[in-house]
Design brief:
Blueprint (H helix, E strand, L loop, with lengths): L5 E10 L2 E11 L4 E5 L6 H9 L6 E6 L2 E3 L4 H6 L2 E4 L11 H5 L14 H15 L15 H14 L4 E5 L7 H16 L3 E5 L3 H7 L2 E6 L2 E7 L5 H10 L3 H10 L1
Parallel strand pairs: 3-8, 3-9, 6-7, 7-8
Antiparallel strand pairs: 1-2, 1-4, 4-5, 9-10
Helix pairs in contact: 4-5, 5-6
Length: about 260
């Protein structure tokens, strides 16, 4: 397989006396989707917030494209082409797709005025790549479906050169058709060589969308498995019992 796009090595994060992340190591490769599973409080969101710059690790190292990375805030993360799409999507409901795509990074004319036409033209280009069926350019995003809103959030990240994308529960509260739309977007991102960390509570999502999955429990990494090698039940046992298929095999061999 290609060299890792991201290597998180032996990361630990404590809050007070509680270790939210305890010596966790996970890799992400280009054009791959790595799922992160675990109960609430398992540590998966804290781990990813270290990569996104929202938290700093107490110990451990992060490597991007094989080089040691220093990520102390979200701005640092963006310099490494890391973008995060939170479950809330962080969209301005009253603005249209183009205005959201360029929110805070607007294209301006030589007179310093916001260039709405240029922003819509650029929005159409990126949407043609990601979601050719998207046509709701004039509507406020509050009027868009869940899948269309995800399209806007993903387009914003990709337009600004994301190579590492963090997606938090991307199909939460979506129906089957909308979930399929997000799945197609993820396949397109993979084809472009973008690496994706997908945080989810939904085992079916992970089985359908991910290439590998890492399960966390009580701040520790239970294990990382290739999706093609495991079943839904294997992942469920990792989440509930904190035992990987390798642990089960070793226990069976020793009995």
């Amino acid at each position: 397989m290609n060299a890792p796009l991201v290597s998180m090595c032996d990361l630990s994060v404590s809050f007070g006396g509680v270790k939210a992340v305890d010596g966790v190591s996970i890799d992400l490769h280009p054009g791959a989707v790595a799922g992160l599973l675990g109960h609430n409080g398992a540590g998966k969101t804290t781990l990813i917030k270290v990569l996104s710059g929202a938290y700093q690790a107490d110990s451990g190292e992060i490597y991007i494209n094989g080089e040691r990375a220093t990520i102390q805030n979200p701005r640092d993360a963006r310099t490494y082409n890391i973008e995060t799409i939170y479950q809330t999507l962080a969209l301005a409901d009253n603005l249209d797709a183009a205005s959201n795509l360029f929110l805070g990074r607007e294209i301006v004319t030589s007179l310093g005025l916001v260039d709405d036409a240029a922003m819509e033209a650029e929005s159409r280009k990126i949407m043609a790549r990601l979601n050719p069926n998207f046509e709701a350019y004039a509507s406020p995003v509050s009027a868009l479906s869940g899948g269309q809103r995800q399209s806007v959030a993903i387009a914003r990240a990709v337009y600004f050169n994301a190579r590492i994308l963090i997606m938090d529960e991307p199909t939460a509260a979506l129906g089957p058709h909308e979930t399929q739309m997000v799945s197609e977007l993820i396949q397109q991102l993979k084809a472009e060589g973008i690496g994706i960390f997908l945080i989810s509570h939904d085992i079916h999502d992970v089985m359908d969308l991910c290439d590998r999955a890492s399960v966390m429990k009580n701040g520790k990494l239970v294990g990382t498995v290739e999706i093609e090698d495991v079943s839904d039940d294997d992942l469920l046992e990792m989440i509930i019992l904190g035992k990987s298929p390798a642990d089960k095999a070793a226990a069976a061999a020793g009995s």
